[in-house]
What does this fold into?
Amino acid sequence: MTITLYQIAERFVGLKEVAGSASNPQILAMLRLDNSWPNDDGIPWCSAGMNYWAWLLRLPRSKSLRARSWLNVGETITLDQAVIGFDVVILRHKLSDPGEHVIDFPGHVGLYSGRANGKVALLGANQADAVNVSQFDEALVLGVRRLA
It folds into this structure.
């Protein structure tokens, strides 16, 4: 039996930040996999989730908390080639943000979960402070990567 990255991530759906000064220990584990400095779950953790899930399957990963760091991982493919369960989508926050050549800038990363009506669905971490499937405008897509 082969387990996909998507199936691993699905196991974390519903995981969310803890309100107030406390932190979710599972999110802290994700954040601290490659970085010792995060002290709480209030910092962006979409890339931490992706790195954690990829680490569980021994897949290539960015080892960075920067969402755009995923632009340097895996094989470049188009959104039209993306397959549910396998591919990573990297987004900019708004259309006026710099393009894919600027890695050290805020963004978002998640697993491709489909697309329709100009929207792309991503299964990801830190989407409304939780792991879930959310919709984003296709125009925000910076890149798509296949890890294996």
